[in-house]
Amino acid sequence: WPRTQAITHRRSLQLRGVCVRDSWLSLVSDVLGSGSVPYLQEAPSPLAFYREWVCPNRPCIIRDAVAHWPALHKWTTRYLRTCIGSKLASVAVTPNGYADAVYKDRFVMPEEREMALSNFLDIVEKKSHQPGVFYIQKQCSNLTEEFPELLLDVESHIPWMSEALGQLPDAVNFWLGEEAAVTSLHKDHYENLYCVISGEKHFILHPPSDRPFIPYEMYQPARYHLQDDGSFSVMDEEGAEKVPWIPIDPLDPDFTLYPEYRKTRPFHCTVRAGEMLYLPSLWFHHVRQSHGCIAVNYWYDMEYDLRFQYFKLIDSLTKVVMKEKEAEGCLV
Ligand SMILES: O=C(O)CCC(=O)C(=O)O
């Protein structure tokens, strides 16, 4: 093609791209509404929850969903010390609060330390001072695996969700950490029921339909290691293959490097003690917390149905478009 024709063709494609993007965004906001997460006043019936929230893949917060759990009044640090203080807990330690996150050109995981829960609580309560930010965030059902004693104060599953989905949770996780501990933006293939016992959790959520505007890059996996002088080194994981991760920090997005991220529609919400967030599968989430916040969550495997296939389609198309843009050197 002569150069002018090629430019005209590219412009018309770009214009068409803008039109497609705008109608895509307006379609998505018709379905999902504004950027706030609706509240339900009480736990729903299994059928109603499945029809109104799981199928349309919409988040909601259920007020007082777990207000009846003994944990809400029992789980003080004093109680935890008495009940399970001598038990070993797996704790994630990082220099900056970011475990499993991009740092420079690496995907960096935390130093994983085993310590008596009472020693961990000393750090959270600032009775002892150690370098780093500490967070109990091991996700492979650490509540059932590491602290089964605590299960008596909560529930081993959420009966209406188990009935709605026809399955029990794959994992029941316990979260307790310092204010500086942050979970970087990512998504999971779980229907997530996230219950706050004390304190607050702050979520930034993106629907799966924001995928075209959320960048992924490939990173060498590495891990933090505490040095004798109290600083942390970053050491590559031997033989580990590169992993895809999201380089954007939604609290301070780099729009120069990732201008497309401006087009996302984040939902912000705070989940308080006694409340439960339904965080649908494949929603991107970034999580912060008040100091010493305690939470328990239930991961139910998602159904790998048409919604999942459509997400994979959007994901593949996004990758193709990104590759084409890179090839054109056109990072619009
Ligand atoms: O609470 C957190 O810090 C992270 C929770 C989370 O990412 C999850 O449940 O998938």
Automatic annotation (TrEMBL):
Role of this protein: Bifunctional enzyme that acts both as an endopeptidase and 2-oxoglutarate-dependent monooxygenase. Endopeptidase that cleaves histones N-terminal tails at the carboxyl side of methylated arginine or lysine residues, to generate 'tailless nucleosomes', which may trigger transcription elongation. Preferentially recognizes and cleaves monomethylated and dimethylated arginine residues of histones H2, H3 and H4. After initial cleavage, continues to digest histones tails via its aminopeptidase activity. Additionally, may play a role in protein biosynthesis by modifying the translation machinery.
GO molecular function terms noted in the UniProt entry: hydrolase activity; metal ion binding; peptidyl-lysine 3-dioxygenase activity
SMART domains: JmjC
Principal subcellular localisation of the protein: cytoplasm
One cellular-component annotation, GO: cytoplasm
Gene3D superfamilies: Jelly Rolls (2.60.120.10)
Subcellular location: Cytoplasm; Nucleus
InterPro entries registered for this protein in UniProt: Cupin_8, JmjC_dom, RmlC-like_jellyroll
Keyword Cytoplasm on entry: yes
Cofactor: Fe(2+)
Protein name according to UniProt: Bifunctional peptidase and (3S)-lysyl hydroxylase JMJD7
Cited SUPFAM superfamilies: Clavaminate synthase-like (SSF51197)
Ranges for domain JmjC: 136-315
PROSITE patterns per record: JMJC
Subunit composition and interactions: Homodimer; disulfide-linked. Interacts with DRG1 and DRG2.
Transmembrane segments: none
Keywords: Cytoplasm, Disulfide bond, Hydrolase, Iron, Metal-binding, Nucleus, Oxidoreductase
Keyword Transferase among UniProt keywords: no
Pfam families the UniProt entry points to: Cupin_8
